[in-house]
Design brief:
Chain lengths: ~230, ~525
Amino acid sequence: MPCSSYVCGQTRADSLPERNPGIHPAGTRGEHPRRQEETGVTVAHPTLSVGQEMTLEAFADTVLPGRKRSPADHAVAGVDDSPGAVEAGALAVLTDPATGIAEGVGAMADELNRIAADMVREDEQTEDALPPFVRLPYRQRRELVAELTSTACEQRELWFLVAMFAYMAFDSAPHLDTVEAMRSGHPGLLHLGFRPPDEDGLWRASRPTYGRPMAPPRAGTDEFGNLP
Amino acid sequence: MSTAEDVDVVVVGSGFGGSIAAYHLAAGGARVVVLERGPWLSGPDFEHSLKFGTSSSRIFEFTAGDGMSVLGGNCVGGGSVVYFAAMPRAPRFVFDREGGTGRRLWPISVRRETLDPWYDVVAQSLNVEAATWRDTSHAGGLWGALCNHSGRTANPLPAAVDSSKCVDCNWMMSGCRFDAKQSLTLNYLPAAVAHGTQIRPLHEVQQVRRDGGDYLVDYLRVDETDYRVLEPGGTLRAKVVVVAAGAGATPVILQRSEAHLGTLPSAVGRHFSGNGERLNVAVMDDERVREVLGLERGDGHGYADFQSGRGPVVANWDNLDENLPEYHRYSLEQLYFPPGLGTVLAQAPQSRPGWFGLDKKRLLKDWQSWLIIFQMVEDDNEGVFGPPPPTGNSVRLSQQLLGRGTLRYRPHGTTLAAWARADEDVRSIVERDGLGRATPWTNDLVGAYTVHPLASCRIGDDPATSALDDTHELRGHEGIFVTDGSAVPTALTVNPSFTIAALAERAVPAIVERLRSRGVRVTYGAPPPKP
């Protein structure tokens, strides 16, 4: 789907780098705004409003959908019956300073809602105080995420970064040690069928091989397996 | 004002190009310092974890460009620490490539026959094992069986893996915990250190300057946790500089140096090749695998074992045929990628866009039944680097791992057609008799991608299209050599580590000669380091 100029026009390209501190130019230590010795960690976790958190969760749920956590769960659309990116820890990953986008995700949530506001049906606008993106049904959420990450959208790299980190919460749990994630039953890794490690926390496979030739080599292959 | 520290040779980067040069020059008596921007990890440091801040993000770098993203090593040992250690030699026809120019792109002095002795030297140190079906993973065996079922051949790959130590954990991209993979940290680098080489991790070279007949190399120090944080560094003075920072960084360092060094050859930062790489994901039907191919894992499954193994172990090389025209020659290699960056670009075939959403989640449910097929086609060296960023080779986005670089890549029709042919070939092999379904990774999100960046500062005979002469010396800048993947002139149609290493070995005698001509007493002829 092409990205409409209307949608892209809402993202205010000139202000995004400032509001998304993922775009840190590297500099010398003296120039960098946050230093390890000042904070203990490199950058503090951002403070998000409830609405921003819901919006980011709804975005993550669009990327890899899951079940509602409760009947009152509005962020998760509930189009699947197993845990999705939200239960896998999307918010924890998106607000992890290691990503470089943590300070900007609140502003990205606001931007998403500004874009979504005009997609919300007239009769829904006064229903409740939910953020506009959260009020969209899954189909429309998906259409918007597709549009924002399409090649026609100038800001697609930023939106893809948010989507990618939400996605990674599910398929690799980078906010958790993988051994601990497996032991605690991380839903994404379980969904993949990722097998657990040995007792010592290391993975090993006992010679996973069929152990026989499967095809003739290409003509001309030498004894080491190289072509001329 | 600080004074520059005097050495004979500064080596920028500690991957294949840097380590091999450092070893031989130090063994010959030169004072060598290796500056490496990444950390120095070994053995137990290589964690089985995908958590931010573990070795999986500390030693790896993903640099997004405009139309091409580059994945590479970022640690002492460079690409050899994160690679899959597949070590095929480049086929003969590669060295005759013209790429539409009507002229041979490789120097006339470099052919397969002239490179074979250098491959042999490297093989002694990296303990390259002959290809065999004995240890091929289920994924490799399945790919071989699929190729056979469609009337094709399949080749197990030579590899720099000590099978007696390998546990097939498939954590190779996070570094090898068991010292089975033959990284440079097990051979050339310790041998270089034994001969007095100093290796300085977390030192990022920014530029090279000229001072009389010497070179000054300026570096900044990199914070060990947050690579975006750079601390004041220093300067080294050397008679010879070997730039081997990888094809995604070497040209950027040289570009930044141009204001100090004077005009560079026009080919610096041009003619980049992604080695023609592209990935397909096949999802296999386990029942059909058992019924049609007769494969049994022994526990009721035919396959469903994507997770185990040691990266790529079997390739289809039917199209590596010197009688075929350029852009029609490619290999199709079974591959493993871990979760994380390794699944996000895969597409569910039944929806568009297929990289996210409910169908993608269903695709992930079948992850153990995935078979990734890695294409290496002949691209057309379409990559060009823009003006360098303020520091390093990218604007770093994340504390580790992610950065935004200046590479622009617009694949020509010949490259796109080659990928389309390879896609179709994969599909015809995988989908025959309903064995599986194959879909290429999307290029719509981060452009094309490569784990084997090449050719951004290449050797050649034509000064108009090659930045280096056939001794790897930068044209017009005596004493600066480039020995990494940047120097490889074209896509290789196979994994390039062995060829990069062989070229680096071949380049050393000329570097020794240059040192001698600059008054440094150095000899050549040290034996290959023992693995």
